Amino acid sequence: MQVQLNGKTTLLSEHCITIADVLAESPWSGRRILVEINGEVVPREAYGRTSLSEGDQIEFVHFVGGG
């Protein structure tokens, strides 16, 4: 399936059907991420049940510490 991920056209593997599936992939695994699909923020508890569709615009925002 082809989507826009952080502004880049990306081809997801066939087993990536939910946000949780994509986040399990490197380089996203283990990071604290805010997810937005087609302009809507997705609550963390909905990642496993939020299905992705061809052409979705997905934004992953990860948090970086600093000081």
Automatic annotation (TrEMBL):
Enumerate the CDD domains for this protein. Ubl_ThiS
Question: Which InterPro entries does this entry report, sorted A to Z?
Answer: Beta-grasp_dom_sf, Mopterin_synth/thiamin_S_b, Thi_S, ThiS/MoaD-like
SUPFAM superfamilies reported for this sequence:
MoaD/ThiS (SSF54285)
- Listed NCBIfam families: thiS
Q: What is this protein called?
A: Sulfur carrier protein ThiS
- Which source organism? Paenibacillus agri
Upper classification of the source organism reads: Bacteria, Bacillati, Bacillota, Bacilli, Bacillales
